[in-house]
Write a structure and sequence with these properties.
Pfam families: Cas6_N, CRISPR_Cas6. The chain is an alpha+beta fold and 217 residues long. It contains four helices and eight strands, in the order E-E-H-E-E-E-H-H-E-E-H-E. Strands 6-7-5-8 form a four-stranded antiparallel β-sheet. A two-stranded antiparallel ribbon has the order 1-2.
C-alpha cells in the first residue's frame, strides 16, 4: 500500500476514462482539457509538485502539457454523521478477502463490497500511515454497517498483464452503531478517508476511486 492515490484521467464533465475489455482503444482528443486528482500523505511529494506546477510529458504517441490546477491541504478529513451512506465506485474496484494459509495460484477479488471487507480495506491503509489506529472487527462491521441497496456492475480489466474482475456502481449502507460510540466514529473516519485515498488494491494507478456521501432515509 502506497501513501498516494492517483485517479484515472477524467474529461471536462468529470467522467472517468478507463479501458475495460469492452474498449479496444482508449482515445484522448486533442485540444480538450483532461484532469486527474492526486492525493499524497508524503509532504516531500507535495512540495515537489508545488515547486514544479507546469511541465510537458509524453502520453501514448504524443506530447501533453500538464498543469497543477488546484492544491488543498487537510489536517483532518470529515464526513457528516448520517443514518445511511451512499458509496459510488467510480472506477473498477478490487477488494481482496484475507489471504488463506494454504497455497494459492492466483488472487481472489470480490464482486460485492461486503461491509467487513470494504471497511478493513480502508482500515489497513489508515493504520499503516496514521498515528491513531482504528480497530473494527469483522463481526461489528457486518452487524452495524449494513448493505441495504445496490446497483453494481462487474467489469473485466487488465491488471498486471492479466484479466481480472472488479466492479463499478453504487451501494447504500446504513450505519447503526450508537451515536458518539468509538465504533461509529471509527467507521465515519474511514469513510471520509476513502474519499481521498480510495478502496482496495492499486489505488495509486486509478483503481478503487470512490465517492462517499451521507444520505437521509
Amino acid at each position: 500500500m502506497k501513501p498516494v492515490r492517483v485517479t484515472v484521467i477524467k474529461d471536462e464533465e468529470g467522467r472517468s476514462i478507463f479501458k475495460g475489455m469492452d474498449k479496444n482503444v482508449l482515445r484522448l482528443k486533442p485540444q480538450i482539457n483532461y484532469f486527474f486528482d492526486l492525493t499524497s500523505l508524503d509532504i516531500n511529494l507535495f512540495e515537489e509538485i508545488v515547486s514544479n506546477p507546469y511541465f510537458n510529458t509524453k502520453v501514448y504517441s504524443t506530447e501533453a502539457s500538464v498543469e497543477v490546477g488546484e492544491t488543498k491541504v487537510f489536517e483532518e478529513v470529515e464526513i457528516e454523521d448520517s443514518k445511511a451512506y451512499k458509496i459510488e465506485f467510480k472506477t473498477p474496484t478490487l477488494i481482496q478477502p484475507p489471504r488463506p494459509n494454504f497455497k494459492r495460484k492466483k488472487n481472489r477479488y470480490l464482486l460485492f463490497p461486503f461491509s467487513p471487507y470494504f471497511l478493513v480495506s480502508i482500515q489497513r491503509h489508515w493504520n499503516k500511515y496514521q498515528e491513531k489506529k482504528i480497530i473494527i472487527s469483522y463481526s461489528r462491521a457486518l452487524y452495524y454497517f449494513k448493505e441495504v441497496d445496490y446497483n453494481l456492475k462487474p467489469v473485466t480489466v487488465i491488471y498486471d498483464k492479466s484479466k481480472v474482475r472488479g466492479f463499478v456502481g453504487w451501494t447504500l449502507f446504513t450505519l447503526e452503531a450508537r451515536k458518539n460510540s468509538s465504533l461509529r466514529e471509527g467507521i465515519r473516519k474511514l469513510l471520509a478517508y476513502s474519499n481521498y485515498i480510495g478502496v482496495g488494491k492499486s489505488r495509486a494507478i486509478g483503481f478503487g476511486e470512490v465517492m462517499v456521501k451521507g444520505v437521509r432515509k
